[in-house]
Amino acid sequence: MRTDSPQTASPQGPRKASPQTIVIWTVVALVCAAGWSVLALSRGEEVSAVWMVAAALGSYAIAYRFYSKFIAYKVLKVDKTRATPAERLNNGIDFHPTDRRVLLGHHFAAIAGAGPLVGPVLAAQMGYLPGTIWIIVGVIFAGAVQDMVVLFFSTRRDGRSLGQMAREEIGPFGGAAALLAAFAIMIILLGVLALVIVNALAQSPWGTFSIAMTIPIALLMGFYLRVLRPGRVSEVSLIGVALLLLALVAGRWVAESSWADTFTLAPSTLVIWLVAYGFIASILPVWMLLAPRDYLSTFMKIGTIALLAIGVVVAMPTLKMDPVTDFATRGDGPVFAGSLFPFVFITIACGALSGFHSLISSGTTPKMIQKETQVRMIGYGSMLMESSVAVMALIAASIIDPGLYFAMNAPAGVIGDTVQNASQVVGSWGYQISPEDLAAAAKNVEEASLLSRTGGAPTLAIGVSEIFSEVTGGSLRAFWYHFAIMFEALFILTALDAGTRVGRFMLQDTLGNLYKPFKNVSWKPGLVITSAIVCGLWGYFLWVGVHEPLGGINQLFPIFGISNQLLAAVALAVCTTLLVKSGRLKWAWITGIPLAWDATVTLTASWQKVFSSDPRVGFFKQRSVYQDGIDRGELIAPAKSMDDMHTIVTNSTVDGVLSAVLALLIVIVIADATRVCIRHVRRPALSTLSESPYVESKIVAPAGLIPTKEEKEEARDAVGAAPGG
Q1: CB-based contact 353:567 (threshold 8 Å)
Q2: Mutual orientation of helices 19-41 and 50-62 as an angle, nearest 10°?
Q3: What is the CA radius of gyration of the chain?
Q4: What pLDDT, on the 0 to 100 scale, is given for residue 690?
Q5: Which class for 428: exposed (0-12), middle (13-18), buried (19 or more C-beta within 10 A)?
Q6: Count of H-run helices and E-run strands, the chain
Q7: Is cis: bond before 116, omega within 30 of 0?
Q8: CA distance readout (Å), 145 to 167, 203, 377, 484, 550
Q9: Phi and psi dihedrals of 318, rounded to 5?
Q10: Which of 120, 35, 173 minimizes the C-alpha distance to 396?
Q11: pTM for this one?
Q12: Which residues of the chain have pLDDT under 70?
């Protein structure tokens, strides 16, 4: 089998940098270094959020320009002459060559879910410095590397799912553990993503209407690009953005009209609608709804984050949260319990390293990518974009008054349900805020109360409204708050539909080992059956979260973070194994070092969540406390009935068992991957690769957003050589 192509070198070859280029990158490096220096060395004095933006953007630019290019062309040796699965297996349903700009939007929208918005907000409890370091350093050396390498290897294997690649490359035992772990984790992640959407949209007619309107807009864009005006990406982009802005404005009109009741939905009703949407979105052709909807939402996502960055530069807000709080060392924080290590790395998941991304990189995206050379922009670049979202979320949480932050994110059982009680409790933690200030903060954004608005979304919305109102005026504070709430829901929903489709691919891959027709991911009976199963499973976790007495997000987000990072360990283990088996042993450290770090952090967190004697941390200890209460006939807050007590016991048991089982499965995967790597080093002849044979590509497309001079010439030559050209 021929797996190597005749051309694998860097497209331009070595070039000497011009003086202008050297000056530009020197300035970028100096600004970046200045940002890091101010953040790290400032103690007691005021620090502007601009320095955090400078440190982040400078680090991203240097990493993309140098490190990602090194991995793409030196390590992976991406090949522009090699046909991708989208070209070879094009069927117009799941395999479909997609313009790189649309695919970049789809991929970014699919990976950017709740994590980069909610996780950094919650982790601000530890101070802004630990989160900033992990978000930026983690994405450069772990998260973006994982996404790009998984995308590359999946593209070389006909768009195989992560679990199936593990089964084929590691072996039946470790592969079976990876398949089971990846699918179970995927279901948990989708349930939590959907729960954040429900919490954001419940009783919000503005948000519900605006989000609902993105569906017909996306369908129009899909048919426009496929049937009416093929290839007219710029035209359909302008139409889509205009309609999206109209939907946003109309949402406020609807909220103030007689239609408000129609779009004011209870959480239970939203659960049903979300499950139905997930099912339909996962079985429709990818060009019809998924790709154009994600592309559409990307304009809003990137536009909002870019405006937020500009707002930070213009308003220059001060970081009011401490660089490192006392909760980081004591581990008794009211937002989430546990010490800085390992829980800040678990809470901030998607902004730095996310296993969920590996499912997208081995799910929809490799079936749509036009050229191998685009894995750098789409895999590494998209992850840097998501990390910037996490940085902005951390800034938003850190510029508001710390007293307000803790009043919003501490549970009602801790701070009470009145502003007087909340003020006293928060003051006892060393963060002063008066009852009048708490009431005024709620009134400014037209909310009845901001107390115990856990889950991160309202806190981020408050931060966004603070920044934007500094630029546009305080009279628009409420508008920006509700706009941010709706923005977060849209942000997460795009990850839900793509994730459901990927879950369907994973289940089809697994069932295909038992019944071969399931291997064909476009086989209609199979896709309907598996889509229904996937939606039913994550729908169960969503229903449980909505009716959880302890608060669904408080109970499920820890297991969400742990599961996400455990899945990243599977992805990095598969990538390391493939680097070794494909003759890249000397480069195995690129994924091997992040794997070692991720496994250490996540397995430590799993151990504590299972075996900790602190009921705020350990699931089984929490179960024991509430079970003892049931035996005594005693209610324990926040439970309000014995049914609530039984629900908490059941959910704590399920969470504890899942944490233990998933950790065990990941240990099996890592151990088996290590065995395969050692065997390959000792006896390479025993190893086999499932890489697809080389087929020459007929598609001509740029590697990045902006075509180079050489790529423009190549495109002109291709047009001239075409029949009739």
Answers
A1: no
A2: 140
A3: 25
A4: 86
A5: exposed
A6: 31, 0
A7: no
A8: 22, 40, 12, 30, 37
A9: -95, 140
A10: 120
A11: 0.86
A12: 1-15, 114, 200, 293-296, 454-455, 490-491, 548-556, 719-725
- Per DSSP, the three-state class of 318 is strand
CA angle 333, 597, 555 (to 5 degrees): 35
**Distance of alpha carbon 491 from the chain centroid:** 10
Task: Annotate 263-285 with three-state secondary structure.
Answer: CCCCHHHHHHHHHHHHHHHHHCC
Cβ neighbors of 440 (< 8 A, separation 6 or more) are none
- Tens-place pLDDT, residues 14-47: 467 788 889 999 999 999 999 999 998 887 788 9
Are 319 and 35 in contact by the 8 Å Cβ rule? The answer is no
Residue carrying the six token digits 């309107």: 213
Give the separation between CA 488 and CA 319, rounded to whole angstroms: 22
| Single-letter residue type at 228 | L
For 435, 568, 598, the CA distances from 349, given in Å and listed in that order, are 34, 10, 11
Which tokens is 446 given? Answer: 């037209």
pLDDT tens, position by position, 683-713? 998 888 889 999 999 999 999 888 888 888 8
- pLDDT tens column, 111-123: 877 678 888 998 9
Q: How far apart are CA 538 and CA 544, in angstroms?
A: 10
